[in-house]
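Appendix B. Chain record.
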Amino acid sequence: MPLILEPYETLDGIYAERTPSEQIYAQIIKDLQDAAETLPNKRFTDGYRITKPVAQTLLASAYL
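Structure tokens predicted for this chain:
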């Protein structure tokens, strides 16, 4: 699958080439590390948002 990190503003370049899986996993791990560092360690009031422990669990799964 292509790794697209910015939204498209036009149709130029809409057919991106396939990205190696190593780069995709590296981006997933980076995003989850950022989430684990910045999210609070408490439940949100609506009960549906991701929390620090959830981000850490997903990060551990990505490492495996």
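Further analysis of this model is presented in Appendix C.
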